[in-house]
Write a structure and sequence with these properties.
Blueprint lengths: L9 H17 L6 E6 L2 E7 L2 H4 L6 H13 L7 E7 L3 H10 L3 E6 L24 E4 L3 H15 L5
Parallel strand pairs: 3-4, 4-5
Antiparallel strand pairs: 1-2, 1-3
């Protein structure tokens, strides 16, 4: 008999990233959350803190990468997977490639600025020193609902 919750599944880890995104929402930040796993265990958790830290680079992915590097005591994150609720931007994608993550899993695509296949694909750019496997659309609806709700609230309930 299969367990009710598979603690090693993409859905489970995206659920953890969504928990982080809700922290961002509560802090009045764009609700993006990220977790990094290694050997089936979460080694980093983060959410957007751009406004709070007054730092344009304080995206969930960047904060999670820094945390994970501290845990593994190396800047290389080989053997790790990043789960993030929204497709990484070019800045984050560049950092992901340089850290040599094995895989990136994201929920919501970003057709305007996504750098994991939507607007461009820096994660698999052929001339860079590393390419990552990409899985898209995991818990896409939940990720979309959270972002949509945040921006609807910001616009005063207007569509």
């Amino acid at each position: 008999m299969n367990p009710l919750i598979d603690l090693k599944s993409d859905d489970y880890f995206m659920g953890e990233a969504l928990r982080q995104a809700r922290h961002a929402y509560a802090a009045d930040e764009v609700p993006v959350g990220a977790v990094i796993i290694k050997d089936g265990h979460i080694i980093a958790r983060a959410y957007n803190q751009v406004e709070c830290l007054k730092d344009a680079t304080a995206h969930a992915e960047i904060l999670a990468l820094t945390q994970a590097q501290s845990v593994v005591e190396d800047w290389r994150l080989q053997g790790c997977t990043l789960f993030v609720t929204k497709e990484p931007c070019p800045m984050c994608a560049g950092a992901i490639v340089h850290c040599r993550l094995d895989r990136v899993v994201y929920g919501l695509s970003d057709p305007k600025a996504g750098a994991a296949g939507s607007a461009m694909n820096l994660l698999q750019f052929p001339t860079l020193n590393h390419q990552c496997d990409i899985t898209q659309g995991v818990q896409e609806h939940a990720c979309h609902q959270l972002i949509q709700s945040f921006f609807r609230e910001k616009r005063g309930g207007k569509a």
